[in-house]
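Regression test case RT-17, inverse folding.

Input:
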């Protein structure tokens, strides 16, 4: 990174910064809070896999191909986004901070970074039963492809593939 934070709004005090290698627990806390708020109907009978999720964040934070960012205001972490190549891996906003545009800001940030890296398409997976996330993604120009796979966490609900064109193909000569 040439700048830290990479994106800051002096008017609001919000900034999106690169996550530090020692922040796996912070990322787990944000993801867990968001998941328990919005996905309880899909995972109600399952204990939250804290150790597995924390270890996943540790791997991602040390993976040179993966970029992980935190949205914060002062010392308050409000959300996170992780992406690798053209794939958005994770997006979460703290439950007490939803519907304030933070998820939109994080997703738009990632799409811009993916575009700037030269990718023509961005992709993500969303839980089929997460109607809010599916609608949110559609509002941001993502479309469902019909592709599906089981989620890695029990009880393994289906995830749906969504994509967004981030770069127009070159115009053909007439």
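Golden output:
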């Amino acid at each position: 990174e040439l700048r830290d934070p990479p994106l800051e709004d002096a008017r609001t005090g919000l900034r999106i910064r690169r996550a530090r290698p020692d922040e796996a627990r912070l990322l787990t806390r944000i993801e867990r809070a968001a998941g328990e708020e919005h996905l309880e109907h899909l995972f109600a009978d399952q204990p939250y896999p804290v150790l597995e999720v924390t270890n996943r964040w540790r791997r991602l934070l040390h993976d040179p191909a993966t970029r992980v960012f935190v949205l914060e205001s002062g010392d308050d972490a409000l959300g996170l986004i992780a992406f690798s190549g053209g794939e958005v891996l994770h997006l979460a906003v703290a439950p007490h901070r939803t519907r304030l545009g933070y998820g939109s800001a994080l997703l738009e940030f990632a799409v811009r970074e993916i575009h700037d890296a030269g990718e023509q398409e961005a992709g993500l997976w969303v839980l089929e039963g997460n109607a809010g996330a599916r609608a949110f993604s559609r509002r941001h120009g993502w479309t469902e492809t019909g592709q599906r796979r089981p989620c890695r966490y029990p009880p393994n609900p289906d995830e749906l593939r969504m994509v967004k064109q981030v770069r127009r193909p070159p115009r053909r000569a007439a």
